[in-house]
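ESCALATION

Customer reports they have been waiting on this structure for their group meeting. Please prioritize. Original submission:
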Amino acid sequence: MTMITYQGSERSRVRPSSFASFIRPVLLIALKLRDEWRRRKTEKMLESLPTEIRKDIGWPTSDAPASRR
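Update from on-call: job pushed to the front of the queue and completed.
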């Protein structure tokens, strides 16, 4: 099937709708919140492991200064 597109056609000048320009930032914020929730959940799970296992996998101990984490 052959498709002919003219430069400067109406279709090429269509701007994104206001809904699309609104939903993108909201979606990015939602994804960032989801990632932060997963990170906190993972850290909580790792902190609940026994000290020996955390040491074996290289996870810092709970009593380490925050600057070394």
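Sent to customer with the following note: The chain has two helices and no strands.
Escalation resolved.
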